[in-house]
Amino acid sequence: MDDVFESAVGDGISYNDTRDVLQMSSGTSQTGAIWSKNKIDVRKPFVFKAYIYLGDQGNSAADGMTFSLQSRKNNFLGKSGQYLGMYATGERYYLSLEFDTYYNGDGLDNPHENSGLKKDGQHIAFNTGHSNYHYGKSELPSSYEMSNNYWKQITVTGKPMTSKYFKISYTYKDMGTGDTFSHGTDVYFTKDGGGDGGHTFLDDPNVYWGFTSSTGRQFEINALSFDTIPQSASIKTKDIQIDKGERWSPKDNFVSATNEYGETIGLDDPHLSTKDNVDTNKTGNYTVTYTYQGEYGTATASASVKVLEEFTLEASDITINQGEKFDPFDSRISLKAYDPIDGDLTNKIDVSENDVDSSTAGTYHVSYQVKNSSGKVAKKTITVTVIPFNPWPDGKTDGWKMFSGEDINLTVDPDNSILETNEVFFSDKQASIYKIFSGKDELKEGEDYRVTVYFKPLDDKIPLSSYRVKVSLKAESSSDDYRELINTTLNTGTPYQKGYYSVMAEFTVSKDELTPLINVENYQGGYIGSVSVLPIK
């Protein structure tokens, strides 16, 4: 249940040890409900099967259960008693299939009012908000008791008719007596639609589904167990690798499939077809496509067949952000090793070389190797590109200001920017910019940070040893006190692309430096391509 449903709500809820049976009430004046985690689209066919238990209280049972559809929330719970844990909330648009065990002839079930019922007694029917009318009703004979200590199999089927409504039907089968009742109704889910008598049940085709239950002054033990949940047709496949010349058929990539009624089908189902271009006599990548053509819709899935001749190791280049922790086994690298004899050797791959330094933007390399049972070694080297941190996302200054207090001016200059967005800060003379790191940028006490700045001189004739840069930190922006993080010349920096040099320093945040002002000074004219203050991971 836990994979499909949210936690049940109400005061009558309890599970069995294996959590495949849910008791929803066991005493008076109780309510209970359980709803799906995800919505279904009633514009697609669905089938739902469950078993419900309505106690053994006979004609003194009360009040019953519902199977319901609603689009609002998946912890929805109505009132107890005649409201069946679903009604009397003020909600207008829902669809409930009620299994009403109470022999009342008043309130919502008064046959003398506009309820659609013709007599007092137990019944099965569809209901909705702002209406007492019962649609698709089965008024049960007095000789039959719903609360008779037997489980009931409930099957609910949805069949789309147009873009505005679907037909819903139910079959109720008593597993002890064999008594069976069936009926259905049209369900409109647009506000300008109309159902029986011009009524709209739902205002949205995407709905949660679930069960509700209630008791009043009288009670019954209500419980349910699930069999088949609503779903569209689906096909599951798997990608495979085979040796050149090896026998293959579409069943090798096929895992499982269900039809539009939720029933498991095999590859031999007449509604399933396959198409492929596989040639096992030639190495290469091939595709096999599976198609389910149903009465109301189509489902497709594809899988790859890789015909191998040689022992291979596969890995992809990767790009990461400055400051991001690099993992040589990152899933984005898509590491895979395969040998026609040994099979999958992915978990045997080792890193032979790794020069990645994610604190500094640049191009790095990681080399991998794997050995098969015959001693043969496959090797692969990838490129890891570390791109500079973008301090000005979406072209916004993000709090960076000039020493005079106004926002900095960013220039779009692809030739002199090292950011993917092409922004750069430029000044033809000495410049000082600062930012107060507060709010989402606030630093954490006791943690280690690394500040990195990318500078580019305006005049490449000026010796780098004369090009001084400085980064300082003020615990209080209004204070004259500060501590120096960087005070150096660019000849000590690390060369980067487009004539930039990076300088960096590490520092530990004290308790009075959580929202500091960090100031960056460029003592000569030039560019500031990136400024980052990132925790050291």
Features:
7-stranded antiparallel sheet; mainly beta; Immunoglobulin-like; Jelly Rolls; 0% helix; 537 residues; single chain; 8-stranded antiparallel sheet
Describe the structure in brief.
The protein is an all-beta fold and 537 residues long.
Shape: extended
CATH class category of the largest domain: Mainly Beta
Low-confidence stretches: 109-114, 192-198
Q: Tally the helices: what do you get?
A: 0
Could you give the distance between the termini? 39 Å
- State the CATH topology of the largest domain: Jelly Rolls
Largest sheet data: 8 strands, antiparallel
Name the helicity range: under 10%
Number of domains: 4
- Mean of residue pLDDT? 88
CATH architecture of the largest domain: Sandwich
| Estimated radius of gyration | 34 Å
Strand content: over 45%
Name the structural class: mainly beta
Please tally the β strands and state the result.
40
Task: Explain what the structure shows.
With 537 residues, the chain is mainly β. The chain has four domains: 9-228, Jelly Rolls, CATH 2.60.120.200; 234-308, Sandwich (Immunoglobulin-like), CATH 2.60.40; 312-387, Immunoglobulin-like (Sandwich), CATH 2.60.40; 393-535, Jelly Rolls (Sandwich), CATH 2.60.120.260. It has no helices and 40 strands. The protein has strands at 9-10, 14-15, 21-25, 31-35, 40-41, 46-53, 64-70, 95-100, 123-128, 131-139, 151-160, 165-174, 180-188, 206-214, 222-228, 234-237, 240-243, 254-258, 264-265, 272-276, 284-293, 298-308, 312-314, 318-321, 336-339, 343-344, 350-354, 362-371, 377-387, 401-402, 410-412, 423-427, 431-436, 448-457, 468-474, 483-489, 494-495, 501-508, 517-522, 526-535. Strands 1, 4, 5, 7, 8, 9, 10 and 14 form an eight-stranded antiparallel sheet that branches. Strands 2-3-15-6-11-12-13 form a seven-stranded antiparallel sheet, with no helix packed on it. It starts with 8 loop residues before the first strand and ends with a strand. The model is unreliable at 109-114 and 192-198 (pLDDT under 50). It comes from Pseudolactococcus plantarum. This is Pesticidal crystal protein Cry22Aa Ig-like domain-containing protein. InterPro entries: ConA-like_dom_sf, Cry22Aa_Ig-like, Ig-like_bact, Ig-like_fold, Lectin_L-type_dom. Residues 315-386 form the Pesticidal crystal protein Cry22Aa Ig-like domain.
